[in-house]
Amino acid sequence: MKIVDIRATPVNIPFTAPYRFSYGTMASVTKTVVELVTDQGAVGLGEIADGNRAADVLKQRDRIIGLDVRDIHAAERRLVPAMRYTPWGNVLQARRIFGGIEMAMWDARGKIETAPLHLLLGGAVRSEIALSEYFSYRLPGGSDPGESSPLDIARYCARMIERFDADMFEGKLATVALDEEVAMVREVRAAIGDRLLRLDANGAWTVPTAREALRRLEPYRVHYYEDPVETYEEMADLRPYTRASFCTHVIDLPKAARLRAPDAIVTNLNELGGIRRTVDFIRACEAFDVAFRFHAGETGIGSTAYLQVSAALEHVREPSQTILRWYGDDVIEGGPLVPKNGRLPVPTGPGLGVALDPQAFKRCHERFLAEGQFPAGSASEHYGGAFRKS
Q1: Residue pLDDT, tens place only, 368-380
Q2: Which burial class, exposed, middle or buried, applies to 25 when counting CB atoms under 10 A from its CB (0-12, 13-18, 19+)?
Q3: pLDDT digits (tens, 9 = 90+) for 314-327
Q4: Domain 3-114+359-386 annotated CATH 3.30.390.10
Q5: Sign of CA dihedral 295, 296, 299, 304
Q6: pLDDT tens column, 44-75
Q7: Any idea which fold 119-353 has?
Q8: What CA–CA distance (Å, rounded) separates 101 from 99?
Q9: For residue 89, what pLDDT is reported?
């Protein structure tokens, strides 16, 4: 089970129509696909979520050649600084890169042992994974007209119910004037009936704006607000103004336990440094009664890894996010994935249970070469530079 080579390839996954959120507009996302080759011929697949990290992966090649794919501790010691900060490197970036490599190590091990990832993690507690349906204002794109009004968005949600029996919805806020967004939520609630509704402002509101928004949105039975404001302390300040719960992409479990806000943490498998670290974190969330779910935006590789981990851990109870419906392409066989009845089945094949589609993989890489990285620059540069409070 020795590692003999590693490859890394940036790919662009286009959206059928660019969607709007508080940071700007997204027409495509760039991911890095990792292929880890073993001496037994198995090729493990992994994914790095934050753009083009191919060169960074290849810099680590000689440090992991010869390691057993099961020796995650040794690989982490070689690739990730042991401290939380160092002036000689970017620890968060190192964790994210290792997370993609580590995912490929798990996939390779599963393929060699002919066992799905959820079995390697202790077995499945569920065979289907619940996922939310997403909505947002979207610009026209190719044959997709997008949505430009509250009624357009409500009709889109109604189509998702009619075509796919979607049973949970999540949508973007802080993109247009509050009056229009209240109208949007009113129309969506009318279209989806009693189905669960979550809303995401991506941290764009000030506390006074959030108070007013929560007050006006209270009649529409919002289940969760994701990042209505930037900080945990601000979310705690908003508690008296809504019956809804809060969730966030910002990871600070001790503070969440201390403040009792947010109620849930939403992230991917790279941010904490891979599958093993994420599993440990989810179990810690369970101990502190903080919910956990996965966010959207990965290729079929990362998305399927979410399914496998969610299958193995009882604490991932609520629907995770997905924007799979908006994908115009993917790198896996049979992609993009198509949720039905608000769910996807957990793959039962070895490892992650997916394989690359060579033609689609080539097409997505060529799209990256032609278009460049989306969003432009590093993720931190994009989010730091484009973020504006409303």
Answers
A1: 999 999 987 443 3
A2: middle
A3: 999 999 999 999 99
A4: yes
A5: positive
A6: 999 999 999 999 999 999 999 999 999 999 99
A7: TIM Barrel (3.20.20)
A8: 6
A9: 81
- Please, are residues 76 and 96 in contact by the beta-carbon 8 Å criterion? no
pTM beyond cutoff 0.90 = yes
Kindly give, in sequence order, each residue whose CB lies less than 8 Å from that of residue 225, ignoring residues fewer than 6 positions away. Answer: 198, 199, 200, 201, 214, 242, 244, 245, 246, 247
Residue 194: exposure state from Cβ atoms within 10 A (0-12, 13-18, ≥19):
exposed
Domain boundaries of the chain, sorted by first residue:
3-114+359-386, 119-353
Q: Could you tell me which of 8, 26, 45, 14 has the C-alpha nearest to residue 370? A: 14
Q: Which residue has the tokens 């490892």?
A: 351
Rounded Cα gap, residues 168 and 245, in angstroms: 15
- Give the pLDDT score at 382: 30
Query: 375: cis peptide before it, omega within 30°?
Result: yes
Phi and psi at 265, nearest 5°, equal: -115, 135
Q: Which two tokens stand for residue 160?
A: 């998702």
